[in-house]
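Re: the multi-chain job from yesterday

Posting the exact lines I submitted so nobody has to dig through the queue logs.
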Amino acid sequence: MNNTYIILLLVSVVCSSYGPPNCNLYKQDQNCYQACLLAEKAITYNQGEDKSQQYFDKSIALCSTFDYSYYEKAVPFAKRGMIREWKEMIDVAVKINPREHLRTRGWYHFFFMHHYEAAIKDIDEVSQLFKGNDIGYTGDGTYHLNIIKALCYKKMGRTNKAIETILTQISNENHQFGVYDHLHLGVLYLENKEYQLAIEKLDIQRDFSDDCEVYFYKALAYKGLKMMHEYKINLDLAKAYYLKEKTMENNYRQMIDEIFLADIENELVLSQKEINN
Amino acid sequence: MKYKLFFFLILLASCNQKPENQNSYLSNVGKILPEHSIDDPNFKPCHDDFSLFFYQLENKTLYQGEKPAILAAFKELDLPKISQNSGYITVRFLVNCKGETGRFRTEQIDFEYKSKQFKGDIVERVLFKTKSLNGWLPGKFNGYKCDYYTYLTFKIIDNQIAEILP
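And the result, structure tokens for all chains:
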């Protein structure tokens, strides 16, 4: 399947309904049942479209405790750079139903705003709510929330805490590995100058998603080990993968540890200087 | 060929779920209406009634040189350090099918995501620099060039740009 088809599929997901509630659960309260039906109507329209938002408004007017409508009405605002509006709505949803929406709020703090402190605070609150049970994954399934926490620590400069958090999470026998767990761990080891461990984790990453980032960071690990031949080979591989569009990818934003062609080319220039010396 | 047909049908099926509002297309929340008092009169969208959002496009690369080129442009800003002048500045705008930009709108919020006013001229300078970026590429959708909305959010700590999102 080439990228065009993947993009078409993604667009179709954007265009189509998203997460309909089970309205039968609300039948005891006719207003909330009707509010749920209105929410079902809302999601037959494109996300963020006026008609969709209007149905969510009607739904909320009919049942002010119907959290799903606040949550779902908020989503397009976050995606389109209007986070103040998103926050006003998601806060109401969280207040009504924290077990359902606190995870998403924590994830969005990280994902859309790189607000690491707020993300950690929400994820910690989720842990308290779930009292030792698994707190689950991000809405897109890319990460376990504890891996998100680790990435927050990384971006706050707390590399060892990030490594410890990932190791604790992946040692859980029920952990389902996310697409980039090993990549992030490998890069953290690289940042800690633990080059062999970095290479080991990056090699494992290839089984999950064989992207140019694997080779770019492996190159940097070999550079740290002064293995210049391997350094250059992996940089060349990184560029080849990049040009084949085998990269980390997210339609909404730059991922943590994602690299670009300029990053590879700058390092290639450096590698030539290092080899010539 | 049969795969192309299959995916086209999926696309059609999913995007045609709007029986009551045929004229709007994915562009209500976040749509930026023209304001003649502040907008550049020379900027014209290619299609008045059709614009997407950046994440809905087929092309991954939307700026020449990608994110590193944007980061490099803002590194040129020599902003003075002002303690606790922190929060987020977001600039939303429209890129037309020729890669030209217009309809810039700014928002300033604190770390609670509540409206605030930054001290000094950081907002004006960030906006000016955003307007000067000239590497935007036209959006592609179904193989055609199209207009799209996008944004830059600046995470500001002590009047310094700590991160640029998305």
